[in-house]
Specification:
Length: 410
């Protein structure tokens, strides 16, 4: 007799009795979803993994420290059988059949009355995949399909443009340090739903090439501002497009609130009554050094790191950085936007007690195909920048962590 495909259904288990036999790694993987579903869970097992034990201690489930006994599945709505005892699994499966309890078996799917699909989630949608051909027993196959569907939902590629859930307003999205793969999942999805994208020069440019033709892409650096200063003109552009009922994404490099003037834009939008969603991004202050093999902290070397802007020289009256105090710190100093001021910065740090031999690394175009690293010391960094023609954008790392990793490629 030919095998029929499984009938897919969603179980509503809130407040309903669920029995899990076994406290090992299979139970550990399945329990979080059952807890999230609100099930009344009883785990029956002599031993349990530390994670399962922690769930019991937190009151998320009841753990009975014993082996399976006839009657354990009474009044259960759903059962997961995952013990290391094949005989106990068989007896429990037979009890589930008698009591008409939907039952999953980790050791023998053919003897189960239910199968667990490969599941994933994206913005209120649950994806559950069950394959019906000979590969249906291969969890890698179903997981691969699940991952492809979830990724498509998250980045918007599986949703037809006229069905996209677009919301008028502005999303302030941190695009990360440059590599398009380092934008957050939420940021990529919002880009896929946008009508207008106002992008910074340092944003991940490759992402813009993926946008559909109907999306209006505006270079923030080229917004005419006449009597307005540039930032005010950008604020006005965000407000104008949002008031037209468009979904607007303000795409910024790194994180919007790390030297990105993101809060100025949030405040302007709030004053105009425009809803704004902030999507944090991966800051170049941590990710770029990491991509170059430099940890900003390391046990026994640096217990702190400080991120400062170097766009204003230490002797400029506009500077808000306490450079003398920074020179006394023993941790890592990360300087953004400081390439053209690094000579004066190095001089100031040395003048206030930082050893001239302190290692320095400059990472240009970090996380992109053009990334390169130049090493120096505080005494030599100004000359190295000139001789190696280091250009912005570059992240500068000062401290002993520069020497921890393998160093720059030969």
């Amino acid at each position: 007799m030919a095998e029929h495909p499984a009938y897919p259904v969603g179980l509503r288990l809130s407040g309903r009795r669920v029995v899990v036999l076994g406290g090992g790694t299979v139970a550990q993987r399945r329990l979080p979803a059952l807890i999230a579903a609100g099930a009344d869970i009883t785990v029956v097992s002599p031993q349990a993994t530390p994670s399962v034990e922690a769930m019991a201690e937190a009151g998320e489930l009841t753990w009975e420290r014993r082996t399976y006994a006839e009657g354990d599945l009474a009044e259960a709505w759903y059962a997961l059988i995952a013990t290391s005892d094949p005989d106990a699994n068989t007896r429990a499966s037979a009890e589930a059949e008698r009591h008409r309890v939907w039952c999953v078996r980790s050791d023998d799917a053919d003897q189960a009355t239910a199968w667990t699909p490969a599941t994933g989630h994206s913005e209120g949608v649950t994806v559950a995949v069950l394959t019906t051909d000979a590969r249906g027993r291969d969890p890698r196959h179903t997981a691969a399909i699940r991952d492809a569907v979830v990724e498509g939902l998250r980045d918007g590629t599986l949703v037809a443009p006229h069905h996209r859930t677009r919301t008028a307003g502005v999303a302030l999205v941190g695009g990360g340090p440059g590599d398009p793969d380092l934008i957050t999942v939420r940021g990529r999805r919002l880009l896929a739903e946008a009508d207008v994208v106002i992008a910074d020069r340092l944003g991940p440019r490759d992402l813009l090439a993926e946008l559909p033709p109907h999306v209006e892409v505006i270079d923030a650096a080229k917004i005419p501002y006449g009597r307005y200063m540039a930032q005010e003109a950008i604020n006005n552009a965000l407000i104008e497009h949002a008031k037209q009922g468009k979904a607007v994404v303000r795409l910024k490099g790194g994180d919007p609130f790390v030297f990105g003037r993101g809060m100025e834009e949030v405040q302007a939008l709030a004053e105009a009554g425009i809803p704004c969603t902030v999507v944090p991004g991966i800051s170049s202050s941590i990710s770029v050094p990491g991509a170059a093999g430099i940890p900003v902290t390391h046990r026994g070397v640096a217990h702190e790191f400080t991120v400062v802007s170097g766009h204003v020289a230490p002797d400029d009256e506009r500077s808000l950085v306490d450079w003398p105090s920074l020179a006394k710190l023993t941790g890592t100093l990360v300087i953004l936007m400081g390439v053209d001021k690094i000579g004066k910065i190095a001089e100031t740090l040395v003048a206030h007690g930082k050893p001239p031999t302190t290692p320095v690394a400059l990472v240009q175009e970090g996380t992109t195909a053009a990334q390169r690293r130049v090493d120096a010391t505080l005494a030599t960094v100004a000359e190295r920048v000139r001789s190696e023609d280091v250009k912005p954008p570059a992240v500068i790392v000062v401290g002993e962590v520069v020497r921890v990793g393998p160093g720059p490629a030969a």
